[in-house]
User: Which sequence fits this backbone?
């Protein structure tokens, strides 16, 4: 059963024609665009796969071909099993029909049989939590209610292969928790699940395997953790590349480790303190902000005190590359950062063995009473795992930190 | 777990006629669902509801009977003019409703076509059912007219389903052809109202076929719609004779429909890229 082939994609390509109907130039009126080029992969029953890639990389086109909505230009897709493709929710709804009527309309559109909808009807209504409004036309629904109803139908689809494009958990916190539970249940039932998402956590939670697409081509595929961290790094590299005026820095790292305002026109800081520069370095690495996780990382702030004793302290906050906060740390209130006028330096030492592999963004600021006021710091650094850690392939998947903790063993002898 | 579509293959080659018909069969319940949706939506938030269906043909019937039958004193052989117009309108309205609604149905469903797969022919097919409901309700108008004029129905009426089938097929031929030719460049859609308005004057709906001069009278026999409308009358009224010269045009509907359907199947998969 589990070895049965669910999907085979063979040399799949899809071409679109871009049209410029009123451009005037006869010859350039259409331009070819290969949304997918020579895609090959296979999926077996019960496997779930994630698809990542930037916008326009062909994710949605791939899912559309897999669900039969659009036909390939060449190559083929073989599907073994019933498919439910959720590329959008609520698209089959009619605003003038009631919730109940839309359940039947939408269910039928998704390929459910009437008797299946009948038997799932009470569960759908219960799941949606909309039993009081089920006879109301959906045009009077709030957008949250609309989404709830739409997702509830999807949750009870009977299919062997489920395809999701971005729509995994919707609605308020409670409902999105419900959705996630339902999806986990589906995966446990050995359904084949394909998810295209920009939410990396969803991919970790549901897909063991991930395909990375760019410009219609599979760049690489493999373990979700590895693929996601490669993807995120590629995104970051691209940003840095653009920042450096598209100068390929060749072998040089694209992680500048210092930011300086000494020559800047407008002073950075506030009335009481002026920032000169901020630098990230370690014992071994003083040029590139690329560190191994077995060394301490120093963040050094160089500044001038203008008005002493303002009651402020420095703080740094670390974010992971997707923007979620990792931690914040503030300087000791008792330390004499502001006591005398003149140039000072403060260094924050982040001890080794704290970070997991990945890219982290630094923000720095000052804390006055309860407020955190940010400086315009745009630094980031990359952490690689040291050799002794490398045999463990758990990387990004398990969060931004991987601290060295104490593990205490006890053995009981019989 | 159901056995619906357990093994599928998507390639660039279009489906064959049989493959496509199988798909429609798998999705047959969707025809009913769309049909119910259209009926409900059409009369949602109206006071008269389905009553509108009878009012529209009634108004047309009164206007034409008054102007042509009474003021201009047009005749229709042995048949009272009002019955002649009504029988013509039944077939013609059924046809024009399917053509209007069918061609727009695929455009209107653009947002569904982009996100969900189903055989697109389902949409015009469901419109045939909606048209049939309208037809049945306007058919009721015939009863008071028959009583009023002291006429009776012909036993040929048992063949009415066959007439309806041909009536639907010719309408679907137009819909499927226009939709397949116009999904990239929508010009043809703008022609539909024009074609329908022109068509009613090329078909013996309001006037009898002997209105044309003798020399060009055979033009009627090239119009499949004329063959249908005349067949309607033969089905309903014992006094009406069917001109057998119409039969080739009637038979031609079958190959026309099949060719339209094949063109549709060839293009159907591209609709979602242009919706």
Assistant:
């Amino acid at each position: 059963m589990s070895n049965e082939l669910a999907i085979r994609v063979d040399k799949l390509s899809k071409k679109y024609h871009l049209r410029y109907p009123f451009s005037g130039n006869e010859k350039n009126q259409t331009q070819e665009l290969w949304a997918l080029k020579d895609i090959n992969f296979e999926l077996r029953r019960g496997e779930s796969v994630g698809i990542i890639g930037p916008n326009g990389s062909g994710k949605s086109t791939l899912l559309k071909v897999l669900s039969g909505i659009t036909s390939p230009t060449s190559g083929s897709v073989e599907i073994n099993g019933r498919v439910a493709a959720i590329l959008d929710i609520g698209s089959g709804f009619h605003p003038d029909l009631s919730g109940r009527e839309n359940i039947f309309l939408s269910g039928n559109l998704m390929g459910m049989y009437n008797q299946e909808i009948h038997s799932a009807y009470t569960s759908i209504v219960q799941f949606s939590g909309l039993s009081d409004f089920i006879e109301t036309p959906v045009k009077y629904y709030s957008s949250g209610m609309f989404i709830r109803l739409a997702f509830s139908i999807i949750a009870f689809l009977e299919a062997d292969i489920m395809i999701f494009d971005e729509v995994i958990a919707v609605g308020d916190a409670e409902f999105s928790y419900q959705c996630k539970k339902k999806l986990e249940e589906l995966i446990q039932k050995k359904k084949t699940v394909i998810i295209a998402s920009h939410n990396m956590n969803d991919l970790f939670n549901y897909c063991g395997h991930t395909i990375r697409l760019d410009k219609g081509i599979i760049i690489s595929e493999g373990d979700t953790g590895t693929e996601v961290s490669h993807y995120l790094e590629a995104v970051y590299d691209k940003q840095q590349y653009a920042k450096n005026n598209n100068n390929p820095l060749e072998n040089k790292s694209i992680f500048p480790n210092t930011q300086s305002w000494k020559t800047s026109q407008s002073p950075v800081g506030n009335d009481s303190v002026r920032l000169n520069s901020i630098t990230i370095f370690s014992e071994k690495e003083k040029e590139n902000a690329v560190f191994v996780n077995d060394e301490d990382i120093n963040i050094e702030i160089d500044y001038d005190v203008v008005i002493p004793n303002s009651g402020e302290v420095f703080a740094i906050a670390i974010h992971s590359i997707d923007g979620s906060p990792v931690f914040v740390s503030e300087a000791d209130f008792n330390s004499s950062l502001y006591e005398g006028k003149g140039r000072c330096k403060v260094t924050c030492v982040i001890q080794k063995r704290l970070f997991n592999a990945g890219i982290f963004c630094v923000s720095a600021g000052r804390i006055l009473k309860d407020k955190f006021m940010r400086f315009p710091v745009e630094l980031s650094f990359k952490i690689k795992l040291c050799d002794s850690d490398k045999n463990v392939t758990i990387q990004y998947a398990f969060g931004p930190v991987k601290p060295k903790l104490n593990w205490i063993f006890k053995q009981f002898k019989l | 777990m159901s056995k619906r579509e357990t093994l599928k293959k998507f390639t660039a080659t279009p489906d064959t006629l049989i493959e496509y018909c199988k798909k429609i069969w798998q999705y047959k319940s969707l025809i009913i669902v769309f049909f119910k949706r259209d009926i409900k939506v059409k009369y949602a938030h109206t006071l008269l509801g389905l009553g509108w269906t009878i009012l529209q043909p009634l108004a047309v019937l009164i206007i034409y009977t008054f102007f042509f039958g009474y003021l201009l004193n047009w005749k229709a052989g042995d048949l009272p003019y009002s019955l002649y117009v009504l029988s013509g309108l039944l077939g013609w309205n059924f046809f024009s409703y399917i053509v209007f609604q069918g061609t727009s149905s695929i455009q209107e469903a653009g947002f569904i076509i982009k996100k969900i797969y189903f055989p697109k022919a389902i949409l015009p097919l469901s419109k045939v059912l909606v048209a049939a409901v309208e037809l049945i309700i306007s058919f009721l108008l015939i009863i008071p007219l028959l009583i009023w004029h002291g006429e009776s129905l012909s036993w040929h009426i048992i063949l009415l389903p066959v007439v309806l089938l041909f009536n639907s097929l010719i309408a679907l031929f137009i819909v499927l052809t226009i939709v397949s030719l116009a999904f990239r460049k929508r010009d043809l859609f703008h022609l539909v109202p024009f074609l329908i308005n022109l068509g009613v004057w090329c078909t013996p709906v309001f006037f009898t076929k002997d209105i044309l001069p003798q020399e060009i009278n055979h033009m009627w026999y090239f119009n499949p719609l004329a063959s249908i409308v005349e067949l309607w009358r033969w089905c309903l009224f014992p006094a009406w004779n069917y001109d057998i010269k119409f039969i080739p045009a009637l038979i031609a509907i079958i190959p026309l429909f099949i060719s339209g359907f094949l063109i549709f199947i060839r293009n159907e998969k591209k609709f979602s890229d242009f919706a």
